[in-house]
Design goal:
CATH architecture: Single Sheet
Low-confidence stretches: 1-5
CATH topology: N-terminal domain of TfIIb
CATH class: Mainly Beta
Family: Belongs to the UPF0434 family.
Pfam families: Trm112p
Mean pLDDT: 88
Structural class: mainly beta
Protein name: UPF0434 protein Ga0058931_3142
Oligomer: single chain
Shape: globular
Radius of gyration: 11 Å
Organism: Roseibaca calidilacus
Distance between the termini: 32 Å
InterPro entries: Trm112-like (IPR005651)
Length: 61
């Protein structure tokens, strides 16, 4: 497994789900976020580590 240029391992995405809906997440490389469309939340990735805390997530449309 090779991390991409920003340090996030895309293969980790296969193991992660939204903590609220348990739905699959979409990786947004430009924003360095994991997107949960069903929950309307974007979880940040900091220093290559996904922050899967609802309090840290950003609401999206």
């Amino acid at each position: 497994m090779t991390p991409d240029e920003r340090g996030f391992d895309r293969h980790m995405l296969e193991a992660l789900v939204c903590p609220i809906t348990k739905a699959q997440l979409r990786y947004d490389a430009a924003a360095q976020e994991l997107i949960s469309r069903p929950a309307h939340l974007a979880f940040p990735i900091r220093n290559g580590i996904p922050v899967m805390l609802v309090d840290e997530a950003r609401e999206i449309e």
